[in-house]
Amino acid sequence: MKTLQLLLSEQRPLVMGILNTTPDSFSDGGQFNIVSAAVDHALQMIEQGADMIDVGGESTRSGAAPVSVEEEISRVIPVIEKIRQHSSVFISVDTSKPEVMRRAVAAGADMINDVLALQSPGAMEICAQLDVPVCLMHMQGEPRSMQHNPQYADVVAEVGAFLQQRIAACVRAGTAQENIVIDPGFGFGKTLEHNLLLLGHLDALVDLHCPVLVGMSRKSMIGKILDAGVNDRLYGSLAAAVLACARGARIFRVHDVQPTVDALKICHAVNPVRRGGERGI
Ligand code: 7PM
Fold first, then answer.
1. Which residues are 84's β-sheet partners?
2. pLDDT tens digits, residue range 131-177?
3. 224 is catalytic
4. d(CA 179, CA 181)
5. C-alpha of residue 21 to centroid of ligand 1, in Å
6. Angle between helices 98-107 and 69-86 (to 10 degrees)
7. CATH number, domain containing residue 202
8. Global pTM?
9. Residue having the nearest C-alpha atom to atom 7 of ligand 1
10. What is the 3-state secondary structure (H, E, C) of 52-95?
11. pLDDT 10s digits, 94-127
């Protein structure tokens, strides 16, 4: 079994492949076809060098309709079970619902990735009880309205303070400090300027002594700079990943696994154990 500690101890950037199981991401809507297409995609990303697969069943797109617990379970659980049958890859589940967290870990998931940073009632307690690693992400507002005029006095300080509070709350609830990963939440209630400030000052988050995960792949911050549609954001996404890596990020949540693995190998070759001992674990 792979553990977060073991992967991090390799002292190289870790690539997390994004696996969407929402019906809108597949052309054929049938349940069997969705599961088998998702598992095929996961195996392909593993082949390309993904260290982790992030399985998500709830679209966090601004304006997207909420998904029921039953619906989310029916999307992600069969996929997690099938990936586990084929591979020992590290699996994270992108969810905010305590019941989905419990079921996903029972099905073989290794980590909880929660864009709400375990603020749903019961979520923090379940994660402590399950004794699994968690990724705490910052978001301002809620998905439906978060991009309507986000405002900060000091985005870097506010995101850092929020994550620090959530780390403390999780540790109080019983989660081991070593099991906590933090994420600035690029694009979640942030303008392009906010996102760039966070990327430019990522060291402020690295200083919180938890490994930092970043997700900028194909996001609108890349699209806005390049004036490019979602299918023309690969090179921009690679550049953003490399910059984050150079500033101390440890885990990269991406769509395009193989190109990202290559780009990050270059970054890592320059400085393999970047401040490894004392920072970001
Ligand atoms: C529509 C809009 C669909 C945005 C999907 C998204 C992150 C995440 C997502 C992230 C962590 C995407 C996002 N983004 N989890 N889940 N960090 N930890 O572009 O940045 O994938 S969903």
1. none
2. 999 999 999 999 889 999 999 999 999 999 999 999 999 999 999 99
3. no
4. 7
5. 13
6. 20
7. 3.20.20.20
8. 0.95
9. 215
10. EEEEECCCCCCCCCCCCHHHHHHHHHHHHHHHHHHCCCEEEEEC
11. 999 999 999 999 999 999 999 999 999 999 999 9
